[in-house]
Design goal:
Blueprint lengths: L2 H15 L17 H16 L3 H14 L3 H13 L3 H15 L3 H14 L4 E15 L2 E13 L2 E9 L3 E9 L4 E7 L41 H34 L3 H35 L6 E7 L2 E7 L3
Parallel strand pairs: 1-5
Antiparallel strand pairs: 1-2, 1-3, 3-4, 6-7
Helix pairs in contact: 2-3, 3-4, 4-5, 4-6, 5-6, 7-8
């Protein structure tokens, strides 16, 4: 139920937490531990685990371990990656557990069991950087440091290493099941600084005759029917509709949680009604936004300022040019 708004909001949450790339395990950032953030992420991971949403639960346990390193959180992340069928991620986390929490008997037992299953089926890759580099694997960030150890599915994988001063190296490795590969990546030499330009000798001054003044032609008369205030009214209406859309989406999520907690017919009908309201607000906001933009571009007298639209590689940009 609640398919449309839940899917849109769920994708936003997944992107913000890195859930769309479950095969990459991010390294610790070295920031000060945030115990409160770790506790919240761990509790959310437990909730998702009870719902059998193992991939999302693993991501939350990894976030808890990143916020405040914990052998318990890392073990939970390993178990949930394994339950989600993401053996490469579970094995990579197991390598981290052995390296960091090897003295903990429970962590060692879980990690060794996962690696015993993974090693015949996966490939092991160790990358050493000189000096420390930021490593990416198949366009996903792995982490920063001098040594990176991951378990990967067999096949071709693209590696990228980046150092300071925009120095990079790339490699493609072809891996076979059970293979163990070690790579050494050294930073390229830094580029020499560009030489300073030689100043030109001063030229003798020559008096240049001034051209006669040119009178600018009279500006054309703008005959479009709407004043600028109409556009600002449309902008305000669009903003109000967008605010209502956000509120309605969150309210629909609340209804969904209420239904999960107590799946009754009344809760179901209430959730369907809130979903319909959210969908209507999506359409209303889109119509108001398009109408406001069209009015600003084609039907509004802007005087010396005029709107402009530019197409960029990342999308489109709109703005005003001229003087007010």
């Amino acid at each position: 139920m609640f398919a449309a708004p839940m899917k849109r909001i769920g994708i936003l949450v997944a992107v913000s937490l890195g859930l769309l790339a479950p095969g990459v395990c991010y390294a610790q950032t070295g920031a000060a531990p945030d115990v409160n953030a770790a506790a919240r992420a761990y509790a959310e991971g437990q909730r998702l685990q009870l719902l059998r949403e193992y991939a999302r639960a693993a991501a939350m346990f990894e976030l808890a371990d990143e916020s405040a390193p914990s052998a318990v959180a890392l073990r939970s992340a390993i178990r949930n990656r394994q339950a989600a069928g993401q053996l490469a991620s579970a094995a990579t986390l197991s390598l981290l557990a052995l390296r960091r929490d090897g003295a903990d008997a429970q962590s060692r037992a879980i990690a060794e069991a996962v690696l015993a299953e993974a090693r015949p089926r996966l490939a092991s890759l160790t990358v050493r950087c000189t000096p420390a580099c930021a490593l990416s694997l198949d366009t996903f960030a792995v982490g920063e440091g001098t040594e990176h150890a991951v378990m990967l599915d067999p096949g071709a994988h693209d590696l990228g290493a980046r150092w300071s001063d925009d120095r990079t190296r790339t490699r493609t490795v072809e891996l076979r099941p059970g293979q163990s590969v070690e790579l050494e990546l050294e930073a390229p030499a830094a580029a020499a600084p560009a030489p300073l330009p030689t100043p030109e000798p001063p030229r003798p001054s020559v008096e240049i005759p001034r051209p006669p003044p040119v009178r600018a032609p009279a500006p054309p008369v703008d005959t479009r029917p709407l004043p600028p205030a109409a556009v600002w009214v449309g902008v305000g209406a669009t903003a109000v509709s967008a605010g209502l859309l956000v509120w309605s989406g969150l309210d629909t999520l609340s209804a969904r949680d209420a239904y999960v907690a107590s799946p009754t017919e009344g809760a179901y009908n209430d959730g369907v009604g809130r979903e319909l309201r959210t969908n209507l607000l999506v359409g209303t906001t889109a119509v108001l936004g398009v109408a406001t933009l069209a009015s600003a571009l084609f039907f509004t007298r802007w005087g010396r300022a005029h709107p402009s639209v530019a197409i960029t590689p990342g999308g489109a940009a709109a703005g005003f040019q001229g003087r007010f």
